Amino acid sequence: MSPCPAHHLRLTREDIRQIQLERLQSTLHRVRRRVAFYKQRFQETGFNPDQFESLDDMVKLPFTTEQDLSDAYPYDMFCIPLRDVVRIHTTTGRGNSPIVIGNSERDLTNRAKLLARVYTSIGLTSEDVFQITLRYGLGTGAFSFHDAAREIGASTIPTSVGHTDKQLKIMRDFGTSCLIATPGYARILLEAMESRGMTPSMLRLKAILLTGEPWSTNLAADLEQGFQAPVYDIYGLSAVCGPGIAAQCQEKTGLHLQEDMVYAEIIDPQSGKPVAPGQWGELVLTTLVEEAVPVIRYRTGDRARLLTSPCACGSTFRLLDHVPGRIDDVLIVKGINIAPEMIERVLTDVLGTAVSWKAEVTGEGPTQQLVLRIGITEPLFFDQMKRQRAMVDRLRHAFAQWIGVTPRILLVEPQSVNNG
Length: 420
Ligand SMILES: [Zn+2]
Known about the structure:
Blueprint: H1 13-34, H2 36-45, H3 66-71, E1 85-91, E2 99-104, H4 105-121, E3 129-132, H5 141-151, E4 155-157, H6 164-173, E5 178-181, H7 183-195, E6 207-210, H8 217-227, E7 231-237, E8 242-248, E9 255-257, E10 262-267, E11 281-287, E12 298-304, E13 319-320, E14 325-326, E15 331-333, E16 336-338, H9 340-351, E17 357-362, E18 369-375, H10 385-402, E19 408-412
Parallel strand pairs: 3-4, 3-5, 5-6, 6-7, 18-19
Antiparallel strand pairs: 1-2, 7-8, 8-9, 9-13, 10-11, 11-12, 12-14, 15-16, 17-18
Helix pairs in contact: 1-2, 4-5, 6-7, 7-8, 9-10
GO molecular function, one term: ligase activity
Keywords: Ligase
Protein name: Phenylacetate-CoA ligase
């Protein structure tokens, strides 16, 4: 069940569909047998995995949402016994609890191989030195890039986030050839490099891999110009095989979906029906080889479309266009998805009462910020400046702790906030 190695280039579309069908049949049987959620969902919708005979039957399957994964906290979505799980990650979702992602040994290998395939396709080898500036924490991102670099025998420097001066020094002194960063942080590094009088000729960068948040094509051009190295778009999400399930090749026509690992659909978010080829909609993903937490028709919330023309590189994996953002009201700051429900929860926890508020993300790169406007009500905020300051500090601390982002908080008249 491991992903096909680089010979996916030789697969015909018929081969790919056959692989997908067989892997789906196996996955559907496994989840019906071992995950109570899917067993019940299949019964409710009258879906029988034994009658799943063609990919056209996918539309008969129920969706899985972020809320479903959150409600299953901690282990209800696990499809294998905990003794066979070798790593546990979490990611934030819309629900009250985080989404828990377990990996079997084979899941970790598959995830590493999937991303290793992306590295290889853009010319990275065991000679390369990877600098991973993503957070090594509960999320999967940094670990996936790390494991995949090891898979191809490259050197990895796990610098994690922040300490920009140190990052630059390491980049120069250690001869980093592949930089892995969120778009925002890549820009911070570029600006820091330029302000310190460093030039790209002092570095040995040959690829910059961006992940974790949407970004503009202007940013990619600025980074390519500033670092004198090509930028690649790496899409992924923790709940579905991690980063690399879609990624640009050297042609940069679009992002090749790793179609032997995931089955992708684009649906109309309102009707749930598939959109016409080439149309924008919501990306829905089904895992094909995950053992610990397989997900069926998972609604990613990401706005996406499939390109209809083939890629000049010769790969038969279909192309996803650059993902421009969300179809819903989830905000993305520094690679962290923030649903309105999460903001609401922190506010209510800290303040002990519901307040009116409005959140927005301003700026890009170093100036990017989550700005939170909170309507002041009498019982909450007294007119003494000192108490207001303490309240704001407590809120900022709570957001940093529970969401991982420290917002700029503005106390405003309740009438000027239109989000309830
Ligand atoms: Zn290609």
